Amino acid sequence: MRLLDLFCGGGGAGYGYRLAGFDVVGVDIKKRQCGYPAGEFVKADVREVLSDLPFLRSFDAIHASPPCQTHSRTKHLRDAQGKGTDKVDLIPETREALERSRVPYVIENVEGAPLRCDLLLCGSMFPRLHVYDDTGRRWLKRHRIFETNVLVPQRSCRHRHAGVRPLGVYGSLGDDIPSGGQTCRSVEQARELMGCPWMSWAALVEAIPPAYTAFIGVYLENHINRKGVSA
Q1: How far is CA 31 from CA 4, 8, 11, 27, in A?
Q2: For residues 50 and 99, what is the distance between their CA atoms, to the nearest angstrom?
């Protein structure tokens, strides 16, 4: 089965779908230095791809991760650090195109984004997404919401029961946020925590762990198989 990974970035989402058994084609306007490990990469403007319905319909499933800085809780931190945001919200036109395609789809973004929250995933739901330091086991804290036309069961967040502060991958390395947030101390630690050993810090900040989409991919595949049988 073929999956189209739109706004693919460094390939975190796409690699998860690859682990789930999909042949993945990633599309992004930028080609990342860290490469695209999930499959074939196409450098293109995703907005042009979204207007090509025959192309969209040539895939069995579509994942899209539109730019999220506009909706991120860290946008004020980015402004304070002089990084700003891209000030672009491509969610509405992405949703419209994917609904028009009638292909099984997933749209991913940060909490606070104008998505229907059909599924919320975080690092504490996946046993492998942790590291150890002198305070104990540190879970990845990375809540992401998913709007999808496929049924995927919700898991439970376990951060409150962890006993130590979770770690995040956002902003800058070694940040300590007064409200309790703390980011990874090194790129190597962030790579291990996210499950993305090929990525730079800049790519990790924008990525989702492959574990998230490997989980979703199982249900996408089952949905497509059931649809094929019923047809």
Answers
A1: 16, 10, 11, 9
A2: 11
